[in-house]
Amino acid sequence: MLFLPESHRRFPVGATTFKFPVSTKVLGTAKIYGHGHRDGGPSVKPALQLDEVVFTAYYPADIKGNNIKKGLDWLLRPLQASLHGYAHYSGISTWLLWPIVYLYGCLLKIPVYPNAPLLRQPLTASPEHTQARSETGPSSWPLVIFSHGLGGSRTAYSQVCTRLASSGRVVLAIQHRDGSGHAFMSSTTDPGLYYIREKDLIWPSDDEQTMVNFRRQQLDFRRHEIYFAFRSFKQLIQDGYQGLNHGLQSIDEKFIDWSSWSSDVDSKTVECEKNVLLAGHSFGGATVATVQFTILSTDPPADVSTPIPIHKALILDPWLEPIPSPGPCPPPQGPGDTLPQLLVINSEKFSLWKDHFARLIDVVQAWEPEKRRLLTILRSQHESFSDFPLLPLISRRAAHIVMDRIVELSEAFIDGNVDTFVDETATRKMEIRIIGKKPDGSPQRQLVGEVGELIAH
Predict the structure, then answer these.
(1) Where is 280: in which H helix or E strand?
(2) Which residues contact 64 (CB under 8 A, 6 or more apart)?
(3) What percent of the chain lies above the pLDDT cut of 70?
(4) How are beta strands 193-194 and 374-377 bridged, if at all?
(5) Strand, coil or helix: what is 364?
(6) 170-175 and 143-147 beta bridge pairing
(7) Is residue 24 helix, strand or coil?
């Protein structure tokens, strides 16, 4: 058995995957061919059809007296679906991928306790957690909603999610069903959905037939998923388990102590009324930026009446190209209005992407004009924010240093200490050096400094 690195923070971590069926809703105009049809011929279906919301909750777990074996499958089941999904995403033959997929699929686990009860927060907090808890009260866990990037999943960012959970937060990692993840296996429709490529799309003749247009439709789809996930989870916290045919259900139909999630008269288990944090990576970062803007400037979708009280947005190496330019810009503010706080953590590669980085600077300055809320971690790659660089047998020390820095910055931001953290950490100016040539003859550039060092822009 192989395990990803374990967090040794304050609390053991549990993980439960929930599903929430919704009335079928088609968003966008694109269609795709289905995997098959009863008569053997190809079928055509909407590319963006929402009928179920799925997310994995990572949280402080109560493992005392519970005989729960540690270990959650890292790759989504069934493995055949993950294999074909990654083949779609990467363009690599399934024959070449299957040894890797089955090695990590069969052996690799996330070091969490599946379906463990949620720990009731103690009435007193240690000094280092006092400030983090002061805004939410002594008896409720803060809530984080996480959006994955292209090719990702609800388990592909388990290192970030479990470390935040181990420090005393509940993290909802959404499995987007928009064709951006490598695979999505629905319990309401068959046979599921793989990563959608440009060549898979079928467009109406009068529509803009581009991948950028589809990405924008995906962002709207993700916005609906985030609202539905929040509404269903908030209902569980406030009203408790509603039975087999109502509200949230366990995706694996195994036993769950539903009572551990329910609030009572004296205390709330999870704070859903204020101070919710949105987080995401890459396309998930674009999702957070877009959702944050639309939540502030528009009402929730017509069939979701529950607003999300966003307090902060943590954006990891965002990919801005799908978002219409200029923007996303904050909406006009009235007397007494306050914008959610923003922190962007960039990879070195994305900070060296000139046009994209210039646009990102403009976005961050519009949201946070007086603060250093855009940081670059030296020697980080775009995938450094996910679990992939930390996989057993292939991980390197530099990947662990970068992940530690990502989590340190994320926690400092959530706790309201990021400016102090940056002040106390040695930072560098942005200096670029040429270290060679790319295959196309253009210069290979690198930022000056050592792995894990910070640049505050």
Answers:
(1) strand 276-281
(2) none
(3) 88
(4) unpaired
(5) helix
(6) parallel
(7) strand
| Residues forming beta bridges with residue 145, ordered by sequence position | 172, 278
Q: Is the CB of residue 392 less than 8 Å from the CB of residue 2?
A: yes
**Three-state DSSP state, 61:** strand
What is the residue-averaged pLDDT of the chain? Answer: 88
64 and 122 Cβ atoms separated by less than 8 Å = no
H-helix segments, 338-438: 348-351, 354-367, 397-414, 418-424
- 339: pLDDT strictly greater than 70: yes
Q: Which residue has the tokens 């709207």?
A: 220
Would the pLDDT of 393 be above 60? Answer: yes
CA dist., res. 446 & res. 449, Å (int): 9
192 backbone φψ class: left, alpha, beta (φ>0; ψ -120 to 50)? left
Cα(115)–Cα(113) distance, rounded to whole angstroms?
6
* CA distance linking residue 162 with residue 155, whole number of Å: 10
pLDDT category of residue 126 using cuts at 50, 70 and 90 = very low
Mean predicted confidence (pLDDT) in 155-179 = 97
Within a 10 A sphere around the Cβ of 310, how many other Cβ atoms?
21
Q: What is the pLDDT of residue 189?
A: 61
Token pair listed for 229? 């996930």
Cis preceding-peptide flag for 392 (omega within 30 of 0): no
Is 55 a residue whose pLDDT tops 50? yes
Q: What is the pLDDT of residue 27?
A: 92
For 186-331, where are the alpha helices, taking DSSP H only?
211-239, 283-297
Residue with tokens 């210069």: 443
Mark out the alpha helices in 37-126 (DSSP H runs). 79-90, 94-107
- pLDDT score of 15 more than 60: yes
For residue 108, how many other CB atoms are within 10 A of its CB? 20
Predicted local confidence at residue 148, as pLDDT: 96
Residue 421's closest CA among 387, 383, 371, 378? 371
In angstroms, the CA 212 to CA 319 distance is: 12
> pTM of the predicted model, to two decimals?
0.93
Q: How many CB atoms are closer than 10 A to CB 274?
A: 13
Cis, peptide link before residue 191, omega less than 30° from 0: yes
The pLDDT of residue 137: 41
- 107 neighbors 240 (Cβ within 8 angstroms): no
Q: Are 371 and 419 contacting, i.e. CB atoms less than 8 angstroms apart?
A: yes
